[in-house]
Amino acid sequence: MVLPHSLPLVPLPSSASVGVGRLPITESTRVIGDSPATTQLKDAVAQRTGIRLTASDVAAPGAIALRVDGTAAPAEGYRLTVADGVEIVGGDEAGLFYGVQTLRQLLSEDGGAWSLPHVEIVDAPRFPRRGVMLDVTRHFFDVTEVKRFIDETSALKFNHLHLHLSDDQGWRIHIDSWPKLTELSSASAADGDRGGYYTQDDYREIVAYATAHHMIVIPEIDLPGHTHAIGVAYPDLVEEPVLNDGLVSQAQELGQPLPVKGEPYLGWGVGHSSVRIHEERTYDFVRDVVRELAEITPGPYIHIGGDESLGTPQADFDLFAEKATAIVVEAGKIPVAWHEMGSAADIATGTVGQYWGKTTPEGSHAEEAEHFVARGGALIMSAADAAYLDMKYTPDFPLGLTWAAVIDVQRAYSWEPTAILDVPADAILGVEAPLWSETTRTYADVENLVFPRAGALAEVAWSPQEAPGRSWESFRERLATLAPQWRQRGVNFYPAPEIPWAAQ
Ligand code: ACM
């Protein structure tokens, strides 16, 4: 008997029993099923092994059969059996897709022959919300790069992609009713690097690709702060920059410029910008942007930002939070906001808060986050000292920042999202791991910060705490087995010394 947690799987399944035999996978292995996951399986096997599986309508010895059966597994869950053949039964199409991702990790090669271990896996996610965020503002990543990000994060069973589409350094999505945003405010990026933006067709292409990989796209327009770029296109919408001590000293230390209203901002400082809270035109703008985004976003959420509005007076900030979340509701979407917006007494009911404080909350962070739940909303946990993928792995790591923590793989793995705030467990929708892009000048840099830590956060979000083998010791052994797959797919992961990386 082989122990379940010795299976080469990340995230760990809820339960597994492992036999001793193996099932060969060869050119004569047939695939049965007509779901999109059937094609995804054939493509994944071809990519990993070079073997081109053939589709078949009828049962054949040793075949891989895929089907959906809502009575056999819950939403996003699946059962995977490998014996004389393979059967994957998804509770829905997403579950089937996750069963295929598991099968993909189970494939192994010995002397040129590919096979799967005999196994019976019953699996379903702990949290419905398993997110990653890509900041495409400080540095811009094009449609091809975002698709690669989707490929590799959906393979770890992440199911939400949050795109941070606007910030001080650039505006990244075309809005028909405010065309100067992309005309004048999108060419810039941090450090004077290349900017860019998505046309609405580009965005639709990303959404369609994400949907095919069972990921819901959450677009974020960050308001009322992080809005310097809006003022490059429409100066009448924003206030003069308000400088804070941290921003000024950081600018001196890094040799970066200070923000000047109406000119592109290429530094990393935060908290200096604000839209005008008491101008009706500001809300015309918010309404138009939210409406256009809602029209091209099939998912239920629009993220309205709310972080680090240090230059916006508190009463104005709260008023804005209430009006902006109400506008999202009017547009038929569920608002999402960074936890600071929980300071607003009348934040729209049902707004989802995104907690980005520490695993031990500081200041008013917990209180602000908990207010979303009091208002009938829920929470996404992005504890900055555990889930932030832009923090350095080691103090001298060449990429990343350190303001929240230095986060090695073990730190990213070892935290409990329900133990931070005083809210009912079911108010925690799940986890999101954000990648902020100040230091990632290329997509290869992004991958270096995201992988392997995304594997740790995937397990925090997917695997039940009580699943046999849900431990750091087991995780590091299992994570090690992803190296050959990542290498083969050209993923620029950081080979963290904590992990006994597999050569083959
Ligand atoms: C944040 O890191 N400013 C949400």
**Name of the CATH homologous superfamily of the largest domain:** Glycosidases
The secondary-structure class comes to alpha/beta
Strand content: 15-25%
Kindly state the number of beta strands. Answer: 18
The separation of the N and C termini measures: 23 Å
Summarize the helices and strands and which ones pair or pack.
Elements: E1 15-25, E2 30-32, H1 36-49, E3 54-56, E4 64-68, E5 78-82, E6 86-90, H2 93-106, E7 108-110, E8 113-123, E9 129-135, H3 143-154, E10 160-164, E11 166-167, E12 170-171, H4 180-184, H5 200-212, E13 216-223, H6 228-233, H7 245-254, H8 280-296, E14 301-305, H9 314-330, E15 334-338, E16 352-355, H10 365-374, E17 379-381, H11 409-413, E18 428-435, H12 443-450, H13 453-462, H14 472-480, H15 483-488
Parallel strand pairs: 2-3, 2-4, 4-6, 9-10, 9-18, 10-13, 13-14, 14-15, 15-16, 16-17, 17-18
Antiparallel strand pairs: 1-8, 5-6, 5-8, 7-8, 11-12
The structure holds acetamide.
Please characterize this protein's 3D structure.
The structure is a single chain. This protein has 15 helices and 18 strands. Strand 11 and strand 12 (170-171) form a beta hairpin. The protein has 2 domains: 4-123, Chitobiase/beta-hexosaminidase domain 2-like (Chitobiase, domain 2, 2-Layer Sandwich); 129-464, Glycosidases (TIM Barrel, Alpha-Beta Barrel), CATH 3.20.20. With 504 residues, it is of the alpha/beta class. Strands 1, 2, 3, 4, 5, 6, 7 and 8 form an 8-stranded mixed beta sheet that branches. Strands 9-10-13-14-15-16-17-18 form an 8-stranded parallel barrel, surrounded by 7 helices. Helices cover 31% and strands 19% of the residues. It binds acetamide. Acetamide binds at residues 307-308, 338, 356.
